[in-house]
Design brief:
The chain is about 10% helix and about 60% strand. The protein is mainly β.
């Protein structure tokens, strides 16, 4: 359990630290028989410039490759604010391409729940499964010389996907779809 004030987290390749006024919640690290588990519970924080992470829970389990068995992992999370996540991610060492993509997409919405697992990421016969619910999703459209990237605002999406396909249900009320270069 943590209740800290005036925390500065320094990341490689980022000259400025992530300065936090306060951090409250539970952080966990647990050794599993064949991997590691990292978790947060009701973690909330506020940056020096007023950005607030409103809470939520995350559990990530990572299992390294062993012999012929590929690496695998699991994620279970709820109440993730996409706008706050993008703003925090832009303060981390994630590379210029990731920062540019987050800025241009300007994500917003609340991931109410997401559960996922993967096995053999980036190898032949890789497997993944992810299901969840996002409410109030907004992603900015982007015009390009060709067709562009579509945008959406006010979407509620329930999804269940895997490497073979899946399903998604989209509902909108007073929302908007934007197809630059088409409409």
């Amino acid at each position: 359990d943590v209740a800290l004030t005036n925390v500065n987290a320094k990341f490689a390749k980022r000259p400025e630290p992530l300065a936090l006024r306060q951090v409250v919640g539970r952080l966990g690290v647990r050794r599993l028989d064949d991997g590691m588990e990292y978790s947060t519970e009701a973690l909330q924080f506020e940056t020096e410039d007023g950005l607030q992470w409103p809470g939520g829970n995350v559990r990530v389990a990572l299992y390294p490759a062993e012999g012929d068995t590929p690496a695998r992992g699991e994620i279970d999370a709820d109440r993730l604010d996409l706008a706050a996540m993008a703003q925090i991610a832009n303060r981390l060492s994630l590379g210029d391409a990731v920062h540019a993509a987050l800025t241009s997409m300007d994500p917003k919405g609340l991931v109410e729940r997401v559960q996922g697992s993967w096995r053999g990421f980036g190898v032949p016969q890789a497997q993944f499964s992810v299901k969840g619910r996002v409410r109030g999703l907004a992603l900015a459209a982007e015009e390009t010389p060709d067709v562009g990237r579509p945008g959406v605002r006010g979407a509620d999406i329930d999804f269940d996907l895997n490497q073979s396909g899946g399903r998604a249900q989209l509902a909108m009320r007073q929302g908007q779809l934007d197809f630059p270069g088409i409409f």
